[in-house]
Amino acid sequence: MIQIEGASITKLILHRLDTENDTLQLSNSMFHFDEAEQEDALKKIFLKPFVNNSTTLEFKHDVNIDLNVLFSVSKSILNNEDFIAQSQNICQHLKAVSKHPNIKSGDVFVLQFDDIILDNNMYQGLGIYKVENKETFIETSGTKDVSLNFKKGIGSKRLDKACLILFTDEPYTIFLIDNVSGETDYWQNEFVKVTFKKDNINNTNQFLSLTKNFITQQYPEDFETTKADQIDLLNRSVEYFKTHETFEKAEFEQEVLHHEGLINSFQNFNKQYAKENEIELTDGFDISAQAVKKQARIFKSVLKLDKNFHVYIHGNRELIEQGVDADGRKYYKLYFENEA
To answer: Which of 195, 193, 194 is nearest to 96 (CA)?
Structure first.
């Protein structure tokens, strides 16, 4: 999704939010590192988790986008206003929305980046991270008598809560991580306040999700079908997105769905799906190859038969037949030329 190989960290500051006592410990100085190894470690912790994130968001506000606190503070940082003061404003805002009794205390990191690549363009970025859970690691010391010290710290396995803002056109492009969302949804809906960005990534994601739900839920309700038929339709849907650079809804319906009755069922499901999920689906867009690659993993092409067989169907539906023998036992007949 994003490329971080040439990215650099230009500013870093650490604060702490204590939700139990409703207090903030605010720093007045930034952290400075001199070694490339330190910056590489920080990039691995704070940027690498976003590399495979394919959902793009943007700031929102029901009245005026300038009233979104984090958008306003981010814009001030982009305009080179006092980074330390603005990072403290971020923490004050986080404290203000952290009122639920289950919200944990945590370290709050604010980082500024240069040269993050998105869609072949280079942008500045702002990262905001709340670390609630720390990992145990071993530190070795000594030259003659080697000793082990167990400490708790921040590793690169998983970020609890994170927000990466890329300064594209307003209202910017945002990637979000929330791995500890059981207490409330305050991180996304109150602290950052975001909505889906209307771009080719989300258009691709949303239409593939719509298609998968139609094939697995509505298709077997409206038509007499088999699991093999469903898998075939899933495969053909993914293949369309893999072999086309642009999506045209009418073309997709003709090439993949073929039949008028199936197309009508799909169109009705499309309208209901968009309404229930409160999304706006467009009839044409550029296809995101990265989004297709990620979504294709959840388009299962495995036909499971009792606990005895798993049949992987990747191609021609005409080479597999279903039937019932004289004793009432169900069977599939497979045609092939070569046995691997």
So the answer is: 193
Instruction: Round to whole Å and give the CA distance between 173 and 57.
Output: 6
**Cβ–Cβ contacts within 10 Å for residue 19, how many?**
18
**Are the beta carbons of 104 and 121 closer than 8 angstroms?**
no
Tokens at residue 195, please?
């909505």
**DSSP string across 147-177:** EEEEEEE--SS--SEEEEEE-SSTT-EEEEE
Would you state the structure tokens that stand for residue 205, as one six-digit string?
């994601």
CA-to-CA separations, 39 to 43, 130, 157, in angstroms, rounded: 6, 19, 17
Structure tokens at 192: 């950052």
Closest by CA to 131, choosing from 157, 100, 97, 101, is 157
For 154, phi then psi, to 5°, come to: -105, 125
Say if residue 284's pLDDT is above 90: yes
- Residues 36-91 have pLDDT tens digits of 889 999 999 999 999 888 789 999 999 999 999 999 999 999 999 999 999 999 99
User: CA 216 to CA 232: how far, in whole Å?
Assistant: 12
pLDDT tens-place string over residues 320-338 = 777 777 887 877 777 767 7
Whether residue 80 contacts residue 107, with contact meaning beta carbons closer than 8 Å, is answered with no
- C-alpha–C-alpha distance, residues 304 and 310, integer Å: 5
At residue 298, φ and ψ (nearest 5 deg) are: -95, 0
* Distances from the Cα of 258 to the Cα of 238, 262, 272, 283, angstroms: 15, 7, 21, 17
Rounded Cα distance, 251 and 3, in Å? 33
